[in-house]
Amino acid sequence: MTGLREAWEKLDEPWQLAFNQAWIAYQNDCCPAGTVILDAAGAIVAQANNRVRTIDTNARELADTSLAHAAINALTQIPTVTQHVPDALYSTIEPCLMCMGAIVINGLRRLHFATADFFAGATSLNQSYPPAVELWPKLDGPHSGPISSIFQCLYVAFHAWITPDGPVARAYSTNRADLYKRSQAVAEIVEPYKRSKGTALKEVFSSLPETILSR
């Protein structure tokens, strides 16, 4: 799919790394979420993915626990004392309450997120929690574009698969029926690539027709 490949090549490196992390998580039957952290000079400090449903993990990361979100796993990689102080976090999905708390506590000044999550996204909580206002990072997101759209669909499809009667799936099927239906179609096409663990993310693009991502 030419449009997707062109969109991919235009993404900055942190976004490409974050989406690659999300793809790894999805192939491991975990929520397709990926995170990359940069220091103030733009150097990559950490990158990680969601590991809630897998026992495999890297040093300093969590796995097989509901705490093993991508942002948490990226932040755990950073030592307390480091010359590369984390400054910016890139996330493929809007951080939840737990992840936003960790981002604020760790003093990151910028947060970039690709897609909004109206069910669990917590980027607006600073408006109702005065002590956090001063520490709240500068927000950049949600973004538009086909890559973000794909991973929004995979995020919704994951929750529909893992807990079809759960609150996330119900919320999206009720309030965003168009997105919910499109997510099922995207997930069905992507399924063979998901099961082939050696499949690179860019290989998936050619399988998706442009019409399936239209809003």
UniProtKB/TrEMBL annotation:
Annotated GO biological process: tRNA wobble adenosine to inosine editing
InterPro entries: CMP_dCMP_dom, Cytidine_deaminase-like
PROSITE patterns: CYT_DCMP_DEAMINASES_2
Residue ranges constituting the CMP/dCMP-type deaminase domain according to the UniProt record: 9-125
SUPFAM superfamilies in UniProt: Cytidine deaminase-like
Cross-referenced Pfam families: dCMP_cyt_deam_1
GO molecular function (one): tRNA-specific adenosine-34 deaminase activity
Protein name according to UniProt: CMP/dCMP-type deaminase domain-containing protein
